[in-house]
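Q: What does the assembled structure look like for these inputs?
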Amino acid sequence: MNREPYLLPNGRVLRYSFHERLIHWMAGVSYVYLLLTGLAFWTPWLFWIAIVLGGGTTAREWHPWIGIVFALATCFMFNMWGRQMRETPSDKAWWASIGHYIRNEDEKMPSADRFNPGQKLLFWGFLGNGGLLLLSGLVLWFPQYIPWNLRLVRQIAVFVHAVCFLFTVALFIVHVYMGTAMERGAFGSVIRGDVSRAWANKHHHTWYRQLLRDSAAKE
Amino acid sequence: MSQTATDIVRISGHAGSVPGAGFNRESQVCKLVDTTTCIGCKACEVACLEWNGYAFSQTTFDNSYQTMPETAWNYWNLIKFNEHEREDGSMMLLMRKDQCMHCEEPGCLVACPADGAIVQYANGIVDFQEANCIGCGYCMSGCPFNIPKFSPTARKVFKCTLCNDRVSQGLEPACIKACPTGCLHFGTKPEMKELAETRAAQLRIHSGHPDAGVYDPPGVGGTHVIYVLHDAKHPELYGGLPRNPRIPLLVGLWKRPLRWLGNLGILAGAFGVFVHYLRFGPKIVKEDELKTDGEGL
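A:
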């Protein structure tokens, strides 16, 4: 998967390979479209978003197809990161000191592997809600094929789609805030792919140490 | 009874105010269907197709008088037949003209996200404005009567308009005009309600139908199409007329508590991260930290 070397010759560390960045943005761009059109259908006060994006009918026709793109990206992501996102015993200690993390007292945090437990929550949250959104979305895509005596399926789909949408919005708000404003250097890592050694050491200490050990072993 | 744009009381998916009700003295219209005098001739079906310009649909044969199982996007008015065996072993052919009920509390309109795709006029007519319909089909999930139907060609949803176009010109709906037995009536809601109650009382007292009554379901705030039934205790015998129709629970939860909870949550989330930034600011990595770390490089 990651055939590119992690320790770059320019003294920086490769955080996300080209493949990983591509999949991330496939999910990111499709999600933003789904979010905007979804918000348009969610409340009349935001229906204007659908008008801006080409009209309500266009939004209704495209939303499911872009949903398929997002679902595919999520599957690729699971294939790419699923193993690294597994919960480890040290995650409990990390969550226990979440207060330090919020107050930016990072020196008091237990060291994190390539993905910290918060990132794992984001990943599994999007995966779980994404799965339910896909299932309920398929029903909402073709409501005319659900016979009247199965109307409860349609009603459940409408409700589940809205609930899961809200959960993903919560995850999305925190993810975007942390990835742009809060964690300086994180946004560059998912655009250019690299971070400084100090960044890797501070935020993903366990991972960084492993990289150093691996590269030492290779030499 | 005519209406203009000023007579609209509700608009689907619409932000802001609506032109408003209370313009006219007695504006509420109502269609009365007396199932006890219906002979199942289907003249109303033909009149509906004629007036609305739809072609005749293919019929299906299921060993009964039923021509097709349910209404369609281009077939808004269908007689539902039921060969009902009574407790004493005698047969009754129950016939009910099925069409949009024009609910006072319309589930289709509540569920619809498209601005102006469904409007409720002050006279009670709930009408689809197909120009504004986005074809999402949420109305189909919101309706307790299985009325809105999706057109695969137009990719929009259609249903009975209660001949809004005729009524606004002071005419009665096409189905009413065509009925040969006079089992269909059209007028103001109080008039029709009174006529229906009179007929139901007549059936109870003189015709041996002790359970005769009027179907004007309160669960959807009453309807602008009401029925006289021989057996008002068992409306489901009449082609599956729901006993206590209401906006489906999950649709109601989605559009009211969940929407408010969600809006509040989204705003709180955005506000929360903003306040976090003001209070704690970004996580900045000092690039010289590694040197003191000893093991860095």
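The radius of gyration of chain B is 26 Å.
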